[in-house]
Design a protein that fits this description.
The structure is a homodimer. Chain A has helices spanning about 35-40, 40-55, 90-100, 155-160, 180-185, 240-250, 275-290; strands at about 1-5, 15-20, 25, 65, 80-85, 115, 130, 135-140, 140-145, 165-170, 175, 195, 200, 210, 215, 220-225, 225-235, 260, 300-305, 320-325. Chain A is of the alpha+beta class. Chain A has 2 domains: about 1-70, no CATH class; about 80-325, Fumarylacetoacetate hydrolase, domain 2 (Alpha-Beta Complex), CATH 3.90.850.
């Protein structure tokens, strides 16, 4: 199934079911008003949503309309919780060099995950506001999962059964603040403004073999101002989503609608480019002696799209412009 | 005004208005189903809630019943966001010694605030479950504020006008995990299980002069298994709640219902005792050469109550038992 959330003046928006090819959509009226409600009542709602999705794909819903990404909020405009990992170790190694971080002896065995703000996720085409472009505005292209209720102590093996939906994410970041917040030990706050999401959340089965071992095995194409800078594949995620969920649920339960992110998609092969500017800059520094790609400023556009081999984009497109608050 | 949330089978619970003396209560039927809805619609809801509160206090509500804390969830069983500071520098200095943290040059000028989980706040009398008592189970007695929508860039001076309610908090902590998570730089996750709240959330005017300079000027009485270990006063909070809010809103807006915590209430005067065990232990270590107060284990009880000079407890009482998950 595929879902989107249209702006309707409420904080949670209105749930729409989107056709497999993202051409058409229909509101989930009478099943769930918003996506969070659908996830909270999944056992009851999902068979009804599946039936509606099938009718929509079969052109049996006369009231379906063209799918309009420009009406979309984030699939979950607000979520109970947002936990974002750094599960691509290639990214972690480069960022440690960029930030001159001290060595982390558990780098390969204990996932790094920060608790982020989930009260104000941004839509796929919304302008993103920042107070100051001297804060080194950066993007982070990621994949994520939306969970059902997860009991405390759930194992990595059990955790995958709690994954309801997959999402595609741009975790906006302010690099001038991040290193100070890391050193202070309390984690990211000012360094992580509101996170943005591609318009369509999908059930894992929609990816077929491209959902594998608890990983989204897709290339994430990232463009800055129309120039592709990244095409890294989700395959190299060191920790699976199951492992990330188990880490988060070790000392607490997670409630339905919790979103867990992969962290910046990153590959060891330099030809894959990068899903964030900091990575590009540290590679330039290592290879050429100086970083030359600038961070983002007012008017810059960031586009992110993951593609199946047939060229289709299962999550739709993130295409945002950086603006002054 | 004073508010509580009764368990009614929903995730957000049912909003009740509580009398000033916490003796009686009445549901806010027809005004707001839950406290979050009341905060989101405050301009419309608050005059109606104020009228109901006045009638309740004047014994003019025939359907009022005895206030029953045993029916209470946290005032906000889930909130859009939870941002917890360490605004009592006496606590911060002691914890830096306890954890052997490196010096933080901005200790007195930039508040330390971590982003916590807000999807699963615990009620005042609920058993608190932990997976393992070797994780050094500890409490943190705090005050907090619940906010209206706060625009990005709000100043400390403007921020106080966004404070809708005051709350009293026990920020449960696992000290065996905290130092590792601080060193890793991504902030607390496993070290901060679900946070608990006293049953009653109150508007700042309810405290009279005891809400002053953006601080809750009340003693917080903390007991472990019936023995009082802390009676620290909120007066010594180094950063005001206005300053904390401004810090949080520097690079993003905060949505209505966001909770900001003070961090462990702590006074320089050793006679005030401590609102967490780690502080007690580091003082023992400094004064007596060895920590002897143990962390908590199964069956231990923690009670927290802040008191006005007349002995009344404006937020009610947190009284929880530690149990194995």
């Amino acid at each position: 199934m595929k879902f989107a959330t249209y702006h309707d003046g409420t904080r949670d928006g209105q749930l729409w079911v989107v056709s497999r090819d993202l051409s058409r959509a229909i509101p989930a009226t009478g099943i769930a008003t918003c996506l969070l409600e659908a996830i909270e009542t999944w056992d009851d709602a999902s068979p009804k949503l599946a039936a509606l999705y099938e009718r929509l794909n079969n052109f049996e819903e006369p009231f379906a309309t063209r799918f309009e990404p420009e009406r979309c909020l984030a699939p979950l405009p607000r979520a109970p919780q947002w936990l974002d990992a750094s599960a691509f170790l290639n990214h972690g190694r480069l960022m440690d060099k960029a930030f001159d971080n001290p060595p982390n002896p558990e780098f390969e065995t204990i996932p790094l995950i920060y608790q982020g703000a989930s009260d104000d996720f941004r839509g796929p085409l919304a302008d993103v506001e920042f107070p100051d472009d001297k804060l080194f505005i950066d993007m982070e292209g990621e994949f994520g999962v939306v969970l059902s209720d997860v009991p405390m102590g759930t194992s990595a093996e059990e955790a995958e059964a709690h994954i309801r939906l997959l999402v595609q994410i741009n975790d906006w970041s302010l690099r001038a603040v991040g290193p100070r917040e890391m050193r202070a030990g309390f984690g990211f706050l000012q360094a992580k403004p509101s996170t943005a999401f591609a318009p369509v959340a999908i059930t894992p089965d929609e990816l077929g073999d491209h959902w594998s071992n608890g990983r989204v095995v897709l290339k994430l194409h990232v463009e800055i101002n129309g120039r592709e800078v990244g095409r890294a594949d989700g395959r190299e995620m060191h920790f699976s989503f199951g492992q990330l969920i188990a880490h988060c649920a070790r000392t607490r339960r997670l409630t339905a609608g919790t979103v867990v992110g992969s962290g910046t998609v990153s590959n060891a092969d330099r030809a894959a480019g990068s899903s964030c500017i900091s990575e590009i800059r540290v590679i330039e520094l290592l290879d050429e002696g100086a970083a030359r790609t600038p961070f983002l400023t007012w008017g810059d556009r960031v586009r992110m799209e993951s593609r199946l081999p047939d060229g289709s984009a299962p999550f739709g497109v993130i295409d945002q412009r950086v603006v002054k608050a």
